[in-house]
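**Tokenised fold:**
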Amino acid sequence: MSNVELERVKAVQSGLTLSGTFVHRGFQGLAGISAGSTSWKRTLTLNANGTFKSDNMMLGTVQGGAPTTGGAGGSDIGSYKISGNTIVFALGNGKVSSSLFFRHDDGSIQVGDENYSKE
């Protein structure tokens, strides 16, 4: 059994704004090896004026009688507000969502359960 050292997450200053593009990539399954696989890329652009744009792209493959490949995507724009360890997104369609938020020492950010690297 190995020892794991954990460090307390530091709260960010209330009203913090960021400027930059952050990317989260992930996958499930292995194309060509498992019966189905999916990969995705989420891009989050945060602007210092409190606005954001997010883009999502997902590609999937299903193996079987006739292999099938498809893709889906979308984007959102709106505003964001960071307070403590919470980020609140107000989307252009009127929906509001909140997620856990903190900054890692390497410059990446955590939004909910996803880690976004600075691009």
Notes: The first strand starts at residue 20 and ends at 28. The mean pLDDT is 85. Strands lie at 20-28, 36-46, 51-62, 68-83, 86-91, 96-103, 109-111, 114-118. DSSP finds no helices and eight strands in the chain.
